[in-house]
């Protein structure tokens, strides 16, 4: 059974930094691209970033490009999202999810971790 | 970027009724890359439908998806109490994912 567990959320000041982690189990982690999706309080779902299985390529939503960095450690079965210079609008629950490529749907999700950007 | 617009924003229905949710894309989407999710408060989204019409593992057959091009539909044939939730459509293309804004199905 696929299991994804996020951690690292919490309060962060605007302009600060925070690193989220997602620990995966139940599948061969290096064989799958991984994604971060976020959801602001009371709002809808928004794709943030996706990284290839090898970690050699990554894509970002325009809203976070240049500020957030996705990475992975396949030896630790762990996905990361580095949040640099966060803004108030980055306040959200951040989910890690495994996309089923090439179709692009997300069958497996973590439970999410809340990031609150506030001074 | 393809924009997905869901309607209605809120659907007020009674258990046992039929729910029809719409997802309209700003440009044509291959059916292969269209999915639907259900989300309940405090929970992660749950995949219902992929490839526009294929039910995910364990999803009851009262859920069905249809459509093509720019118009897609999620139908719940007879609402059960556990079906009252928010539903999102999602598309994938050229390494970019987009979601609709959601339709809330609430108890009338």
Quaternary arrangement of the chains shown? heterodimer
Strand count of chain B: 10
Helicity range of chain B: under 10%
Strand content of chain B: over 45%
Structural class of chain B: mainly beta
Average of pLDDT of chain B: 96
Helix content of chain A: under 10%
Q: Count of DSSP E strands of chain A? A: 11
How far apart lie the N and C ends of chain B?
36 Å
- What string gives the helices and strands of chain A in order? EEEEEEEEEEE
Task: Give structural notes.
The complex is a heterodimer of chains A (119) and B (108). Chain A contains no helices and 11 strands. Chain A is an all-beta fold and 119 residues long. In chain A, a hairpin with a 4-residue loop joins strand 9 and strand 10. The model of chain A has no long low-confidence stretch (mean pLDDT 97). In chain B, strands 2, 4, 5, 6, 8, 9 and 10 form a 7-stranded mixed β-sheet that branches. In chain B, strands 1-3-7 form a 3-stranded antiparallel β-sheet, with no helix packed on it. The N and C termini of chain B lie far apart (36 Å). Chain B has strands spanning 4-7, 10-13, 19-29, 34-39, 46-50, 54-55, 63-76, 86-93, 96-99, 103-107. The A-B interface holds A 35, 37, 44-47, 50, 59, 61, 95, 99-100, 102-107, 109-112 and B 32-33, 35, 37, 39, 43-47, 50-51, 56-57, 88, 90-93, 95-102.
